[in-house]
Amino acid sequence: MSDQSHRIAGGLIDRSETLEFTFNGTPMHGYLGDTLASALLANGQKLVGRSFKYHRPRGIFSAGPEEPNALVQLRSGAQQEPNTRATVAELFDGLTATSQNHLGSLEFDFMSITDLLAPFLSTGFYYKTFMWPAAFWEKIYEPIIRSSAGLGRLSMEADPDTYDKGFLHCDLLIIGAGPSGLAAALAAGASGLRVILADEDFSVGGRLNSESYKIDGVSGSSWAKQALAELKSMDKVRVMNRTTVYGAYDHGIFGALERRTDHQKTSFGKPRQVLWRIYSKRSLLTTGATERPIAFGNNDRPGIMLAGAVRSYVNRFGVTPGKQVTIFTNNDDGWRTATDLVAKGVKVTAVIDARNKSASTPITGAEIILGDQIIDTAGRKGLRSITLKSGKVIQTDCLAVSGGWNPNVHLTCHQRGKPEWNSDILAFVPGGILPTGMKIAGAANGKLGLSTGMVDAVAVAQKIVQDLGQRPASYDIPTSEDEPQSGGAIWHVKDSKKRAWVDLQNDVTVKDIQLSYQEGFRSVEHLKRYTTLGMATDQGKTSNIAGLAIMAECSGKTIPETGTTIFRPPYTPIPIGALAGRARGKHFRPYRLTPSHKWAEENGATFVETGNWLRAQWFARPGEKGWRDSVDREVAMTRASVGICDVTTLGKIDIQGKDVAEFLNHVYTNAFLKLPIGKVRYGLMLREDGVAYDDGTTARLAENHFVMTTTTANAVLVFRRLEFARQCLWPGLDIHMISTTDAWAQFAVAGPNSRKLLSKIVDAPFDMSNEAFPFMACSELTICSGTPARLFRISFSGEIAYEIAVPAKYGNSMMGALMTAGQEFDAVPYGTEALGVMRIEKGHAAGNELNGQTTALNLGLGGFISKKKDCIGKTLSQRPELNRDDAIRLVGFKPVKSDDLLLAGSHFITRDEEANMANDQGWMSSVAYSPTLGHSIGLGFIKKGHQRMGEIIRVVNPSRGVEIEAEIVSPHFYDPEGGLQRG
Amino acid sequence: MGEFTLKAEPFLDRYERDFGSVSIKELHQQAIVSFAIPNGCETKAEKTLNKVFGVACPKVGNSVLSKDGSARLMRLGADQLFCLLSNQQDTHSAHLVMNQKFGQDIYTTDQSDVWVCVEVSGTQTRKALERICAIDLHPDHFTIASIARTTMEHLGTIILRSAENTYVLLSASSSANSFLHALETSVENTM
Amino acid sequence: MIINHPLLGPRDASEFVYLGDESLINRPDPNSEDADDRFYEYGYLRDNPAGDLRELWYHEQGDRSWLVVTRNTLTHEITSVEMARDVAKAKGRDK
Description:
The complex is a heterotrimer of chains A (983), B (191) and C (95).
Chain A: E1 14-23, E2 26-32, H1 36-42, E3 49-50, E4 57-58, E5 71-74, E6 81-85, E7 95-99, H2 113-116, H3 125-129, H4 136-148, E8 163-175, H5 179-190, E9 195-198, E10 214-215, E11 218-219, H6 220-232, E12 237-240, E13 243-248, E14 253-259, E15 273-285, E16 289-291, E17 304-306, H7 307-316, E18 324-329, H8 332-343, E19 347-353, E20 367-370, E21 374-378, E22 385-388, E23 393-395, E24 398-402, E25 405-407, E26 416-417, E27 420-422, E28 427-429, E29 432-433, E30 438-440, H9 450-467, E31 501-503, E32 508-509, H10 510-518, H11 524-531, H12 544-555, H13 559-562, H14 576-580, E33 592-593, H15 597-602, E34 605-610, E35 613-619, H16 627-640, E36 643-646, E37 651-656, H17 660-667, E38 679-686, E39 692-702, E40 705-710, H18 715-729, E41 736-739, E42 744-750, H19 754-759, E43 778-783, E44 787-792, E45 801-807, H20 811-822, E46 828-829, H21 832-842, H22 874-877, E47 888-895, E48 907-909, E49 922-930, E50 935-943, E51 952-957, E52 962-969, H23 979-982
Parallel strand pairs in A: 1-7, 8-9, 8-15, 9-12, 15-30, 17-24, 18-19, 18-24, 19-20, 33-35, 36-46
Antiparallel strand pairs in A: 1-2, 3-4, 5-6, 5-7, 10-11, 13-14, 14-15, 16-25, 21-22, 22-23, 26-29, 27-28, 31-32, 34-35, 36-42, 37-40, 37-41, 38-39, 39-40, 42-45, 43-44, 44-45, 47-50, 47-52, 48-51, 49-50, 51-52
Chain B: E1 16-18, E2 23-26, E3 31-36, H1 42-53, E4 63-65, E5 71-77, E6 80-85, H2 94-102, E7 107-110, E8 115-121, H3 125-129, E9 147-152, E10 155-163, E11 166-172, H4 176-190
Antiparallel strand pairs in B: 1-2, 2-8, 3-6, 3-7, 4-5, 5-6, 8-11, 9-10, 10-11
Chain C: E1 2-5, E2 9-12, E3 17-21, H1 35-44, E4 52-58, E5 66-72, E6 78-83, H2 84-90
Antiparallel strand pairs in C: 1-2, 3-4, 4-5, 5-6
């Protein structure tokens, strides 16, 4: 397209596929294979954003993930994504991109006034300025900082895209599909290893796509294509492009983010990104190297970029970032930019080498300047000229800077690795303790030459093959040459008087680092936090080493003595959406349904989440004005006739073995050794520290067969503790446990007519009479013409009551059958609220009372700790402090004025004392309105409660501003003698 | 008597769906019985199993079909096995039959309704399961008849590879809907 | 992390639940004279070494076995994994 002013011939783009996109609303064109950055450059767009602190105009600086400047917002509406690096954003048809961090237009940013205020905004400015006066913080400073902070903006809408996660396994994970990674994958794949080769780029090849290298006589990019085809033909090799391995974790586990639809306009309902957990036996890091800049005055203008990036744009994308390019280098590699540009017909104005050294190749038409350095530049929204130390001014619209290459050691440090300084290449290479199973090869290992790197990678890969017990197949290493690499240690131009940027993303200058040192920040970790050097999205990929070098200059130490900051995952930013994966909305976590859920839904139930369970809370009937109406009715009808409640959620554990009774004696406080067959017993469990843990019932179905129930909340935990007791404490006992919580649909059938109701459904000749099946009896039987069932005569409500269990598949049908059979008794279904009201009326302790702080004594269950045997928690439950005279006791409370409502969480204060913590007597744990008694009732813990019956106490709730008087009464409000349930 | 009868309702309402290269199907007539081997009675129990099923007891992490092909024995742990019986009209009497054969040599528990049983099959099955299963399902590694007890989307799951591209998954029946959703999502996401 | 289960092979640590020091197996004799002190130590005192620690892990999403895992608390290197039941028996707890 003619509007692409900077598009030149060649490159790996597909010119038959023109893509339309917009930048800040301006329509532009690019080609398939472009990044947003290369397409912007092709369209002559140099200014792409404003810097973080000073709002300086900034352009594209790199051609990869290290980009500090070109952060843009992609897409619009709910899909708007801020802080995206234009250099790795793949161009697609219809892409909309906008610049960020400016007030007004990109060209005229009102916030750029901060640049003029720069002398006042030195490092640590915020810490120093916003200290005083303290009152200004909330009203003035914070709003100002908040509105000017940050880069892009969130849409404030829910993310409409979906994300997923997954698990992969391999013998060898190769990270980085450049020349070393590809060669290693070919060698390992040929030897039969299961290989995953991951690369963050959309096309594999790494620098091969950006350089003019030859491998085996063909261009590097062609060789990469062939290699890819060969790898794809190996069925044990998986090549994953668009996949960033972002973290190295314990034992060979890696995190990787695969971008599946980011390069498309729409995801077509598929996950946009997949977060992989990769289990590898071995890993090979072939992540190459990242070029570093040199800091000099005003080195941040649009048009100043890394020399290697200029080669990428010219060679890979067919784009020239400038029409008159100048090169500033301190090493041989920088010169290759000049030769590549000339080969593509781009005008090279000058090559400046800070060393007194020239490369052998002549650069046609370029002025060669040796031993000089750049001290300043000009051009507000795009580079116009550079000024050298010698005073020479060169007109240029693009400056390619090369300060040498840093191996990408990031992932080697995610465990305990500490990079080591290599003085040959003047860079850190991997060192210290590497992640389990990791090896490094090629440029990432400091072997910067192409041929050297590939030879190294193949050798390491074959060593890994051997290590895994396989025979390395022969593999002919492709022939290539090493490019010249020698360089000089120049980090910043010392003669430069103007501000010289080290960290472009955080606007940290050479002077900031020097000032921070002067102010006493001597550790690199402190330097980082004080100046913000190396923070944010790029994590200092182009700035860290220069920062360290300047720090070293200040202290007179060497760079290795100065040390590096710790690299932590992720290598590049990972969207929160990807970390959440599928776990959002309704599917945030799994939910469990009771067997009669369908029946409950059809019969007007309101559901409540209890743990993962959805349980019926109450069943509203037409005309009822609120939940209390429904709950009061359910309680009244149950106590008057019969009620039915699905209690499947209680944990059920099937326990069999020769020694179960003895085992139960160990884990329960009370005796179980002599529990007769056909009987159920209440049991209390303690923690080993003597605090009450859980309670429930255990039934003995046969000599060696027991069924234990636990509370709903503790079902999993009790099972775990029992397994611990079984395997670790009493491993000699013959006990076998399996959870049957989901096996049985269990219903409480309670009320004076419960026996009559159940008599209608049990199969003959089962005898339901009180004599044949008394309180605390249990039996296996059949019901409804042959369905297997279990019947327990236990009561939580205080009425004559049963729990009847049928296989879960029959549960829904069973609820219907019970209701039909109960029609003549006006049977009522009841939910968890009515269940709770009846248990409070009966004075049973539940979760509110078994809260992990109360003992059997506190609960009034002291008598349940058998004196004749040991059990878990017994010894420590006898500690004096837990058995003080004034220990709290569970008692009942009733309001003095019968229409007062008690509040759970209230504290008890005596009538004549002030309501403060020192006079605290205890607290109210459970309250309910008792429809049976016609007033509010409560259970609570109060000092010496059992000796204070009839005392009037203040029930104080300062947070709600409520205080009422209540009388201490027995916790057993309903049928305290317990005659009803035995009838 | 006889006034009331109960109807068994499968946990996923006999769900069956073909997605193309993957299908998901509820196996709703599966009887599952757990066996526990009494302490110190391994040899005796293995002998009994051999007598009843006509095959040697599998190793932990493996399963084996009985000689007549009607039952699959899955060894889940040192002292625990599951026995799967397909196409049972009455899934709840299976354990009673076993109980009679075993006496006190092996403890049995009916597990039929603890689990929802789902068969996932088709050429793309492994690719779909990759999204929720942390176990290495590579065919060289997870050979036919292999089993593993693990977790998928926070739900405890037993996975059995019953044929080349067929897997049988057991997960808690109370969370059957969430489990099915996890499976469907995995299949849809990888289609 | 990956725990190499003695019966099942390598499994992701997410299948396991952590409890703590292996010494929790050594539940004191409740009938001993100094039972109070010994239970106090058992319940509340733990070593916290920077290095190898023998610790209890429960394979909740697996075969429900308790394991004794020797793990270096600095590097997370796991040098041995044993069935806790065997460890408990070796300590004479089945007597």
